[in-house]
Amino acid sequence: MLFAHKMKTYAFVGPSGTGKSYRAQMVANERGINYIIDDGLLISGNEVLAGISAKKAPTKIETVRNALFQNDERKKEIQDVIKKKKPESILILGTSDEMVKRIAENLGFEPISETIYITDVATEEEMATARNMRVTQGKHVIPVPTFAIKKDFSGYLLDPLQIFKSTGKGKEPYISEKSIIRPTFSYLGNFKISDTVFKQIVDYVAEKTEGINKIYRTIIKKHEGFDDGIYIYLEVIIEFGYNIKDTMQILKRNIIKEIEKLTAMNVLSMEIVVKGVNYNKDNKLIK
Questions:
Q1: Using one digit for the tens of pLDDT, what is the confidence trace for 8-66?
Q2: Number of domains in the chain
Q3: Do residues 129 and 200 both lie within one domain?
Q4: Same structural domain for residues 175 and 243?
Q5: Euclidean distance between CA atoms 23 and 127, whole angstroms
Q6: Which helix (H) or strand (E) holds 181?
Q7: DSSP code, position 88
Q8: pLDDT given for residue 52 in this prediction
Q9: Domain limits at 214?
């Protein structure tokens, strides 16, 4: 037996796009389950404990492989956390009985003891609405708050979602925070953001940042993979009289904020070099 402790395995099954992730925490909460496996992620409460979302995979084949934990490295990452946390029960989400069975087997879990179907907890109308959101708007739900996954979804637009549900007279209401992710390729087709766009954002922010005279040089490098994002190298001229360290920190913070807000791309790292100081109105520099 892979795990030294006893862990009961539940399954939550329904076709893709019918609202499983939307209702996952509600189903888990009603059964006292604190751990969820959803699309390659191990989730507990408001935190992603391990894994990489299958929703980030570049192809449908890779999406399936990630969701089924066929990658030994990803599988071991999940197993190590389970061994450490020793949960009493876990809920696996999947599109079919066979899928959740294979996930449980691949991760070395106990056989599934109970299966909940989406039709048990959602009406036909609710499932139709969820399917429409998936097909027409490319929206997916991850059952954790946006702040917990923002850095993991570079190139995706994220919206927070809060669910409030009455659980009966005299009982505490169920409140859950989730995230809607919209992979840009799912509703816009393939596209690329030119380096010029990032440079223009940098120039605009620098112009609005007090103490910055001008951007002397900008280099943008993109990184593609599970940690999609960009690297930024800047050379700047600052105005005389401003604290260099404080001004650079403000500039860095403002640039990162605007790029991530406007492009949904993560800034993986940013280096700023001060090349000169503008010390008079004639734009003479101290180098």
A1: 999 999 988 787 877 888 888 889 999 999 888 898 887 888 887 766 565 566 667 77
A2: 2
A3: no
A4: no
A5: 11
A6: strand 174-183
A7: S
A8: 78
A9: 195-286
Confidence of residue 200 (pLDDT cuts 50, 70, 90): very high
Strands annotated E in the chain: 8-13, 36-38, 41-44, 47-51, 89-94, 112-117, 140-142, 156-165, 174-183, 212-223, 229-239, 267-278, 285-286
**Confidence check: pLDDT of 136 > 60:** no
Look up the CATH number of the domain holding residue 242.
Answer: 3.30.70.1350
More confident residue, 129 or 162: 129
Q: Which two tokens stand for residue 154?
A: 């570079």
Based on the domain organization, do 231 and 273 belong to the same domain? yes
Q: Which residues contact 26 (CB under 8 A, 6 or more apart)?
A: 121, 163, 165, 174, 176
Q: Which of 219, 229, 218 is nearest to 263 (CA)?
A: 229
Contact at 8 Å (CB) between 167 and 174?
yes
Residue 156's alpha-carbon distances to 97, 122, 146, in angstroms, are: 30, 27, 12
The whole-angstrom separation of Cα 151 and Cα 227 is 9
pTM of the model: 0.56
Residue 125: both structure tokens together: 């109308």
Mean pLDDT of the residues in the chain: 78
**Lookup: tokens for 27:** 């189903």
